[in-house]
Design brief:
The complex is a heterodimer. Chain A is mainly α. Chain A has 31 helices and six strands. In chain A, α6 packs across α7. In chain B, α2 packs across α3, α2 runs parallel beside α4 and α3 packs across α4. The radius of gyration of chain B is 24 Å and the shape is elongated. The chains are: A mainly alpha, B alpha+beta.
Chain lengths: 744, 355
């Protein structure tokens, strides 16, 4: 019997006998369950069957024995009759699938108070008591059975008999279905549930067709009151997308096509959206333009203009989003502008086109798909954004904040949150679909790798002037904003008392020497510790699942590959607030009952950041010639060997990229986890949101500064730790080739 | 002429490869390659030669048909199970591994002990003349050296069949002839079965025992380089291998097993009986001589349309009574004036009646 099969059987066996079957009240890793091993809550499945009347679990050990029996008598392909191997393999598939599905099915069917569904109690034998959420044992058993199932699939001849590929595919698909697809479907379901928990289409319709949502007035244009939330969201998103695309293009043109001096510094801008915590831009805008902001102060002092609250509403949110997401568009568009082959522009010029004509009729059309992509990314970013609207929205409501208030507000209205989520999700998925189409037409952009010769032609004067006139002040303002957010951390009370102080840092991060040694007495330590811990846990998982998925997408072929790719990238399009709501609905009740734990936060991080890992991996893999895999295969290596010995070492930069992205994005996520945190698992971003809510801007800004510092250190540290080995010509796979992240 | 089936005997039986994108890439191909032969798959791009090679390697599985290696059916075997090695067009050397690790990769992943691997790698590197380069990275080698490492890596497993996918296309012209000779010499020394893919007819003729010419997923013709060059049976091979002019003539009568042929204003006899009626005649561009009187040779009266001096001779496009002709005159030293008329004689032995 091969090692793989032994491991699979052992996993199932251990899951049934050694670890608690059900979820524990305390953390698994505290190992307090060892002390009460045989107890009702801590017992493994076998003891649950024997002592605690859970007879329905008996099928699992039976299936294990069946699998072991099959493995003990494998069919010898050389001597067996035709079809014998196949039918043996089919049995293995069946047992594996049955085992894994049964774990889930019994979990859904039998809840804490017995059968969950009326028809089951009618059909099935009576049971006493019920069960709570699944635990470590159930997880091991599921994985073991999945491995067995994958083995069977490979033995049937699929994936060219490669067990590794079958297993990886099955695992990733199961995880994505469980933690992306299922929650989303759960939200849809919740939208149809009426007050008495019955399914009804009417319930969906009444929630859907509210004037509050769809009221369309002229005032929508300037964010006036009386405008429907859906229109607000869409209008804001369109403005933001147009604005960021325009600004991003101007900046990209300055960097790639002008001799502007500060263009090296400009490239640093691309790092900003990655390491900026969600409230920094909004807070800085308040410090600058708010009622007590520097600009208003000055205007009042110099011209006697009374301060207004214009920043709270559409203008403020729009401004904040422009600042927050222009670097993202910039990042996308640098690649697009650089992708335009200089030869084509030279051809145009040699045909006596003027600079402007070349730009208008050659360069711009070539960039059109890229511009569309940047626009749609901006759109998705905007509708998913939660931090800026919640901070600056005032009475200007958008979908993401409405979902938030539907859950945490005075009237806990799950149905409303669900329907809002559905609508927001449809917007996002539609934009995502358009974006996929825009980027699929790659034929325009000419990155051949064959070293296009020729110099990019200079910009027409008008375009160059516009770029400089728009770009430079914008940059200056960005610098001022970030500077503001640093200064703000060191003054007593912005707007009233500008004396220098460290009290905000002391409040958050004090370390005192007490009776029993050093104590972390600062109020922020707890949330910071949590954040770092969860982000550290999530990063490697994101990298593993992401790179594995990328490998499956880019390097293997199987039916339904497009669907698989869509599933792994799906969470990119799901706004954070929607994911948060979905996770609550999906994981608040057995069989997977993990709300309030750290696990749900880690899982949320992993699957929200998964598309980043996947795309980074695909981008990196597409730079590695496929003949490398084939060479390895023809030399007798199996899928797993090729992956480990050839691809993984060459993918190191992509792995590092995924690690850093995973870590940093987890640190700055707010919208997705805002519903998932509990007192124990409070995170940095939710703590900051709380401070902001109390008007305690000083601490919030100081905390943000600390976060930025940690992230920068982490990036530098990882780069230094892993290092980059010389790979001759094939090195250039920068992490920045990865996709652009949706912040919030 | 089928020989006994040995370790390196490779056989394709009605193999079809359909990617499901319109036309199949390979449409029912059958051939047999004898042990120890070097056989070239030759054809224009898109003719299915690379797909055929990849099916030998196991990198593609046939949609239909059978592949036999050493008398055993290997159709369903994956690439990692087949006793076949491939030298890639791009070499596909692992850029993060030294020459040693690259060549030792195959034995290592198949579980050979370290010391044995090292010994084997050393033997192979010696064979290929690369000892002393063990610790270099591929990026530190010249193109020719990289190529040799790729060959060593494929050879180290002592495969039954060694495959070459356009191995010379990444080398500069001067080096090509040299490497081509090396490959042929090595193949004969080891008496190893080789399948070689190229679109360069000169390269194919220089290295091969046999050539299989492919066209649009079919085998157009197979045979020795000599046969295919001098005695093509199809218009495609005549055109592809020697750029022959394929003209329409007529077999007027058959006497004593000889066919009397009329081609434009030329008449001649061919030493084989053909059906009386219209026939396609192939004439290579290099068979013509400019003559003032025919002296019994068949000849065509022509008028020059275009003419170009290419160094080793003069290329002409001429109008004749049999149609337009492409002619190469190796001994001419200057271009000929357009519009000038002359007589071009050729030997009846060089005229081929083809399908």
């Amino acid at each position: 019997m091969s090692g793989y099969r032994i491991i699979a059987l052992l996993l199932v066996a251990a899951g049934l006998t050694l670890v608690p079957w059900y979820a524990l009240q305390s953390s698994f890793y505290e190992f307090t369950w060892l002390a009460k091993f045989g107890g009702k809550d801590q017992a493994p499945a076998l003891l649950q069957i024997k002592n605690f009347s859970k007879p329905w679990l008996i099928l699992l050990p039976v299936l294990l024995l069946a699998a072991a029996g099959l493995y003990a008598k494998p069919v010898n392909a050389a001597t067996a009759a035709e079809g014998a191997v196949r039918s043996w393999a089919r049995m293995v598939v069946f047992i594996g699938a049955a085992g894994a599905l049964y774990v889930l099915a019994q979990g859904f069917a039998i809840g804490p108070r017995g059968y969950n569904f009326g028809f089951l109690s009618a059909m099935m034998p009576e049971i006493t008591g019920g069960q709570f959420g699944l635990g470590a044992g159930a997880m091991l058993v599921t994985f073991g059975f999945l491995m067995i199932c994958a083995d069977g699939i490979a033995s049937m001849g699929y994936f060219r008999g490669d067990r590794f590929i079958a297993c990886a595919l099955l695992m990733v698909t199961s995880l994505v279905v469980m933690f992306v697809f299922f929650p989303v479907v759960r939200v849809l379901y919740e939208g149809f549930v009426d007050a008495d928990r019955n399914l009804s289409f009417g319930a969906l319709w009444t929630r859907f067709a509210q004037p509050k949502m769809w009221n369309l007035t002229l005032s929508c244009l300037w964010g006036g009151s009386g405008c429907g939330v859906a229109w607000n969201t869409l209008w804001l998103a369109l403005l933001t997308a147009a604005g960021t695309t325009f600004l991003g293009l101007m900046l990209a043109l300055i960097v790639t096509r002008s001799n502007f001096r500060g263009k090296k510094v400009l490239r640093l801008l691309t790092v900003l959206p990655i390491i900026t915590p969600p409230f920094v831009v909004g807070l800085a805008l308040i410090l600058l333009f708010g009622r007590a902001g520097a600009v208003n102060d000055f205007l009042y002092w110099a011209f006697d203009i009374p301060p207004t609250r214009w920043i709270y509403g559409l203008p403020g949110v729009l401004l904040a989003q422009l600042f927050a997401f222009t670097p993202v568009a910039f990042l996308v568009l640098i690649g697009v502008v650089e992708g335009v082959s200089p030869q084509l522009e030279e051809a145009s010029q040699s045909l006596h086109a003027s600079r402007w004509q070349t730009f208008r009729y050659v360069t711009l059309p070539l960039m059109a798909p890229g511009l569309a992509n940047a626009f749609l990314v901006g759109f998705i970013e905007s509708i998913a954004d939660f931090g800026n609207p919640v901070l600056l929205g005032g009475s200007f409501a958008v979908m993401s904040t409405e979902i938030y208030f539907a859950i945490v507000g005075a009237q806990l209205d799950q149905g409303k949150a669900a329907v809002y989520s559905i609508i927001l999700l449809s917007f996002a998925l539609f934009a995502f679909w358009l974006q996929q189409r825009a980027t699929a037409k790659k034929s325009f952009v000419t990155v051949s790798g064959k070293g296009d010769t020729g110099l990019p032609s200079p910009l027409p004067d008008g375009v160059r002037r516009t770029a400089i006139i728009v770009g430079v002040p914008w940059l200056a303002l960005t610098v001022v904003l970030y500077g503001m957010s640093i200064v703000g951390a060191f003054v007593k009370t912005w707007g009233r008392d500008y004396t220098f102080t460290l009290e905000h840092f002391v409040k958050g991060f004090a370390i005192e020497h007490g009776v029993n040694g050093w104590h972390f007495t600062g109020a922020a330590w707890h949330s910071l510790g949590n954040t770092v811990q969860f982000a550290l846990a999530a990063a490697p998982l994101t990298a593993i699942v992401g790179i594995l998925s990328a490998y499956l997408i880019a390097r293997t072929t199987f039916k339904g590959q497009r669907v698989f790719e869509f599933l792994t990238l799906l969470s990119f399009a799901i706004p954070g607030t929607v994911i948060g709501v979905a996770y609550i609905f999906a994981f608040n009740v057995p069989p997977i009952e993990i709300t309030g734990t750290g696990l749900i936060i880690v899982l949320c991080f992993v699957f929200r950041n998964l598309p980043v890992g996947v795309r980074g991996g695909i981008a990196a893999l597409s730079q590695l010639d496929k003949s490398l895999d084939e060479a390895s295969t023809t030399l007798g290596a199996k899928g797993v060997t090729t992956f480990r010995r050839v691809l993984l070492p060459l993918l190191k930069p992509a792995v590092i990229g995924a690690l850093i992205y995973g870590f940093v994005r987890s640190m700055t996520t707010v919208s997705a986890i805002i519903f998932l945190v509990s007192g124990d698992t409070e995170l940095a971003t939710t703590y900051i949101l709380g401070r902001v809510g109390n008007g305690d801007y000083g601490v919030a800004i100081a905390y943000s500064a600390v976060l930025i510092l940690i992230m920068v250190v982490a990036i530098i540290f990882v780069q230094w730790l892993v290092g980059t080995r010389k790979l001759g010509r094939r090195t250039a796979i920068a992490p920045s080739t990865g996709p652009v992240a949706v912040a919030g | 002429m089928t020989q006994a089936t040995k370790k390196g005997t490779l056989e394709f039986i009605n193999v079809v490869k359909d990617y499901g994108t319109g036309e199949p890439a390979v449409k029912g191909v059958s051939f047999r390659i004898e042990d120890g032969d070097l056989v070239t798959l030759l054809g224009p791009s898109g003719c299915g030669k690379t797909t055929t090679l990849r099916m030998v390697a196991g990198l593609e599985l046939p949609t239909k048909g059978q592949i036999m290696l050493g008398g055993k059916d290997v159709t369903a075997q994956s690439a990692s199970q087949r006793n076949v090695s491939l030298v890639f067009q791009s070499y596909a050397l692992f850029p993060h591994m030294s020459v040693m690790d690259n060549v030792g990769y195959g034995p290592t992943v198949q579980g050979m002990a370290k010391a044995q691997v090292a010994a084997k790698v050393n033997d192979t590197l010696k064979l290929i003349g690369l000892n002393g380069y063990e610790d270099r990275l591929p990026s530190e080698l010249s193109g020719g050296q990289q190529q040799r490492v790729a060959i060593a890596r494929a050879l180290v497993l002592e495969p039954a069949v060694l495959l070459f996918d356009e191995p010379l296309s990444n080398l500069d012209t001067k080096l090509r002839r040299h490497v081509r000779e090396e490959i042929r010499e090595l193949q004969q020394r080891l008496a190893i079965t080789c399948v070689y893919v190229t679109h360069d007819r000169e390269e194919a003729m220089a290295v091969s025992d046999h050539i299989i010419v492919m066209d649009k997923g079919h085998i157009a013709e197979a045979g020795s380089p000599n046969q295919l060059f001098f005695e093509p049976r199809t218009a495609f091979v005549a055109d592809f291998l020697s750029e022959a002019n394929v003209l329409t003539g007529e077999v007027t009568s058959v006497t004593d097993g000889k066919s009397n042929v009329r081609l434009g204003d030329a008449t001649f006899a061919i030493n084989a009986p053909f059906d009386v009626g219209p026939a396609k005649i192939a004439l290579r561009p290099d068979v013509f001589d400019v003559v003032s009187d025919d002296r019994g040779q068949p000849a065509l009266h022509v008028k020059v349309k275009k003419s170009a001096f290419v160094g080793k001779g003069v290329e002409l496009v001429v109008d004749s009574s049999a149609g337009e002709l492409f002619v190469f005159l190796p001994r001419a030293k200057a271009t000929l004036e357009a519009g000038s008329e002359m007589r071009l004689a050729f030997s009846a032995l060089d005229a081929r009646v083809i399908k």
